[in-house]
Each structure stands twice: as C-alpha cells, then as structure tokens.
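Need tokens for this chain, all 246 residues.
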Amino acid sequence: EFSDRHLEQAAWQCDPEVRLDILSWICERKGVKLDTVSATQYAAVQLILKLNMTSQSPGFRGRVSGSIRKFVDVMGVGLSAAAKATKNPCTAASGTEEQHIRSPSVQRCVDFLKWLWTFSVQSLGPGLVFQRKSLALAIIDILLALYTEAHDGTRLLLPVQHGVAHGDMLAVVHMIGDPFDTNRNAALSLLLRYRPALEHGFSKRTLHEAYMHAQRLSKRSIVADVAQSALLYRFVSAYFPQPPPP
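Here are the structure tokens for all 246 residues:
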C-alpha cells in the first residue's frame, strides 16, 4: 500500500515502470471508489500522465490508457451513484441532496475529468510527437464514451458541454491531417463512432470548409494528400449526407 505522502515522490521516479506501477495501483487497486480517491492521488495521476505521454513503447502506452479507462469507469460508477442519490426522496427530504452533489469526492472527480479532457486536447497540438497524440486520442475516446453513455442524471454532474465543445472537437478533425496513418484513422474513428453526440457541434460552414479542403487535396499527386482527402470525405459525408453547397 502507498501512503499519500509517498505518492508524489514515487511519481517522480526516473524509471517509467515504477510510475506505471503507481498509476496501476491508484486506478486499478481492489476496492477503489470515488470517495477513496484523494486529491493527492488525482495529482499523482496528472503528474504521471505529463511525464509519460511520449513513451516509445506501444505496449506501455496501451497499459497507461488501460489504467485510465478503468479509473474513468470507477468515476462513472461513482457519479452515477451520486446522481441516483439526488433522486432519492429520503435524501431530498433530509436536505442532504445539495451536499451530496457538491461533496468533495464528486467535486474532485469532476475537476479531474475537466483537466484530463483539456490536457488530452492540448496534446493534439501541431508539432507534438506521434506518441503523445496517439495516447491523447485514446484518452479522448475513453472520455467520450463516458460522456455519451451516461444517463441523464449523471450528465448533470459531468462536464459534458465542456467535453464536446466545438473548438475541442475541431482539434480532433485536424488530426485527420496528421502525418501518421494510425492517428488519422483513430481521429476519424472517434468522429464516426460518436457522431450522434457530436453532430450538433459542427456548423455547416465547418463542414463546407472540410469538404472544399478535401476537394483540393484530392487533386494533388501526393499519396498522403489523397489519403487525407478520402478521410475528410468520409467525415463530411457522415455529418452532412448531401455535399455542402458551394
């Protein structure tokens, strides 16, 4: 067992395998629940992610995203329980409903989810390395699954609007132009899989610009440009079945 006062020191370890062990313990330990995750543990997860986004090992990145997926699953269960408690007549009558919604454990969780989303979107920025973008797309996938699959009560506790903000999703669209096939295909897969939740976030103007850019790319002789054009056409056709007007 790790004590909170040793977590930060352990998270700074030079050996990435040690950091991964710390991450696995926080996210996957037996009996972990929303109200057992401390502020120090959230901070340790943030630090470990910052230090390990550029690992060269696909297996390592997969283990990181696997731990984060299980951690987010724990948050989803905890937030769902908090949302259900607000509908309990006995809870409401006792005047504890508002306290439950704003309990420290719920607030820490929501703050962490906001940070995780922002951090992941920022990791898609131009000029950043393939490994960072690849892991960021995997985390965005995990968060979108939470945002889109949550029932209405849980949605009230989630930063849903923050999570599917127009500007943030444009960063994912721009990943269709990434130099690496893996990232391009992962970005398109996200956009297609979560289309019902995202389709209202893209204006006709945005789709028209993507369509026109795809047309320009399709006329070039560079193979990568033509491949990007095909992915953009798939994105536009999914969100706007008829070609946008000129």
